[in-house]
Amino acid sequence: MLAAGCGSSSGSDEASPDGTAAATASPTATATATEVPTAPRSNLERLPRTPLPSGDPPSSQDGSGHAFLRDVFDDAQALWEHEFQSAGLTYRPARLTIFTHQLHTACGPQPAYGGPFYCPASFGVYLGPAFFAALSRKVGVQLGDFAQSYVIAHELGHHVQTLLGITHWKAAADQQHSAGANARSVRFELQADCLAGVWMHSVYRRGEVTDADIKEALDAAAVVGDDFLQRTTGQTRPPEDWTHGSSAQRQQWLKTGFVEGTPESCDTFNP
Predict the structure, then answer these.
(1) Using CA atoms, how far apart are residues 225 and 153, in angstroms rounded to an integer?
(2) Residue ranges of the domains in the chain?
(3) Per-residue confidence band for 34, with pLDDT thresholds at 50, 70 and 90
(4) Closest C-alpha among 203, 235, 234 to residue 217
């Protein structure tokens, strides 16, 4: 499925900002095997209302398509660096790799046509630009510049989750209670959508994003919903087997982050 590469390719070895196991950021990860750890809240709540990063918002008019993708990545990363610094937390930058051929990562091999993904083992965001064109053809909806920006911001949302210990918590919970793994995966992906919305809020406040751009991002969130992809690919999976959330859910949480503009609003595990 085209969206299979979106999200986090995670194992149980995620690291924290200082290179130690991320369990130090989430004390609930030490729960016994008969308990499902409670989703961490405190670190999200420590991040303040979004400050405005310095510099100009990315523009698709500047340079090549790859340059635009890197500009979006750098802009979103600047936002989270500000957030962590304001909260007195260490921010370890993510690394961006744009690939057009098969590559090997710390999370395993990825095909040339694979979708964007985040690898917590290397703090790496990986983007295959061909994915956007392929998805547009598959679903019959043109994904423009701001739709691509949403996808990049979503993957950086997974990086924020890793630094805050949420990724590690999820891996521990999945290991202890595998029956709830899909439901947690949905909440995990929706949280990354919401964090992408927080970045959109920041760019919008700088006056360089139009209502049409926001609609484009919301349309993109809809076409990567499990139910939308299921219809377009002819698959039939019950909602309990979904891993990313419905179109409505993805739009709802992206909009929540955009409207509220604060990471605290993105607690999809304890709404």
Answers:
(1) 16
(2) 2-8+60-265
(3) very low
(4) 203
